[in-house]
Design goal:
Elements: H1 4-34, H2 39-48, E1 68-74, E2 81-90, H3 98-101, H4 110-116, E3 129-136, E4 139-144, H5 145-149, H6 153-162, E5 168-169, H7 171-180, H8 196-200, H9 229-232, H10 236-244, H11 274-285, H12 303-313
Antiparallel strand pairs: 1-2, 1-5, 2-3, 3-4
The chain binds heme C.
Length: 315
């Protein structure tokens, strides 16, 4: 009985720790599941796909295994022109987002419609699927367009590749870049419920986060909030200059360069000569050159393209 007090203390400690874990982790999880996804939440979840942080599907955070968001202007099967519709293409092997794997998290109403009318539980990872958002009596739900309309990934991608490249968004892979590059050390994706609203736009709603992982809220803000950056700045040209070297557009910016996200080659398949660029830029800075050197146009499969697509998706 010599250690009686320790036993009691250990039990009380265990109880306090367990209790507080329950309050901070477990109870909010029930709460989240009870909240219905907003339209923004559904869009974000299906754009980003299953997991944009570390996962066994993409252990090096290279943007593997991510869906594409495609804007269709004609029915991909019949070719009939139609009102532009955004769809999410999950090619063969791409893991479905949490909302398809566990429809419960979509929230009441949305879950029933998505399963019954939207046939999301018929989607098979081995075959791939194309999802879209639909409405029924004002309630949004997810539709597995492969099951309801026969829009297979092959048919939709053939139509997308025949159209304009800008109609294909790699925002899902771009969010992986955002997480990997640590943009969240400086930027938040969370305008706060203060006068922040006036500068960075409306704060998010709880239902915007159903199924999202990670949320990339950021914590300590050293730079503008980016939750709505695509609404205030939709210039890809500006983004390109700014990511290559922020000092080209904001002379005193503390943001690092992300020129390495261009990879080896530019849009024309030419090797990018970073050393030459730097030499010319230094000449510009010391006044022996009038204009800064041109920033190379990024290739369509570069990491920077993914990241810019992600910025543009933050409306
Ligand atoms: C060291 C901190 C830091 C890091 C890391 C950082 N930024 Fe920035 N960023 C800034 C600062 C400061 C500004 C404001 C000045 C400017 O425009 O450069 C800014 C501005 C921006 C803007 C323009 C915002 C607006 O309101 O128009 C975008 C877009 C942006 N950053 C994206 C990114 C992305 C994406 C990453 C990760 C790849 C990143 N930043 C990493 C500090 C940072």
């Amino acid at each position: 009985m010599a250690f009686r007090e320790y036993k009691l203390g250990a039990r009380m400690f265990g109880l306090a720790l367990g209790g507080s874990m329950c309050i901070t982790l477990l109870l909010p999880a029930f709460d989240f599941a009870a909240v219905a996804s907003t339209d923004m939440g559904l869009d974000k979840q299906f754009t980003a796909g299953h997991e944009t942080g570390f996962s066994l599907d993409d252990p090096f955070l290279l943007g593997w295994n991510k869906p594409l968001k495609v804007t269709l202007k004609a029915d991909p099967v019949t070719g009939q022109p139609m009102e532009a519709k955004e769809v999410y293409v999950y090619q063969k092997g791409t893991t479905f987002p949490a909302g398809v794997l566990h429809p419960r998290i979509l929230g009441k109403g949305i879950e029933e419609l998505s399963v019954q009318k939207g046939k999301i539980s018929e989607a098979k990872k081995d075959a791939g699927a194309v999802f879209g958002l639909a409405k029924d009596g004002g309630v949004s739900y997810v539709e597995n367009l492969t099951a309801t309309k026969g829009w297979t990934t092959a048919v939709v991608m053939a139509a997308a590749n025949a159209g304009k490249d800008e109609d294909i968004s790699h925002a899902g892979a771009g969010k992986t870049m955002f997480v990997r590059e640590g943009c969240w050390w400086c930027h938040t994706l969370l305008p706060e419920q203060t006068q922040d609203w006036q500068v960075f736009g409306a704060p998010p709603m709880i239902g915007d986060f159903n199924g999202e992982s990670p949320t990339a809220f950021g914590s300590d803000r050293k730079a503008p909030d980016l939750l709505h950056v695509g609404s205030r700045n939709s210039s890809r040209e500006w983004m390109m200059l700014h990511f290559f070297n922020p000092r080209l557009v904001q002379p005193h910016s503390i943001m690092p360069r992300f020129d390495y996200l261009w990879g080896e080659k530019d849009a024309n398949g030419q090797k990018i000569d970073f050393d030459k660029w730097r030499t010319e830029y230094d000449q510009y800075r010391n006044g022996s050159r009038v204009t800064p050197p041109d920033v190379p146009a990024y290739s369509k499969n570069s990491e920077i393209r993914y990241l810019v697509d992600y910025m543009m998706s933050l409306k």
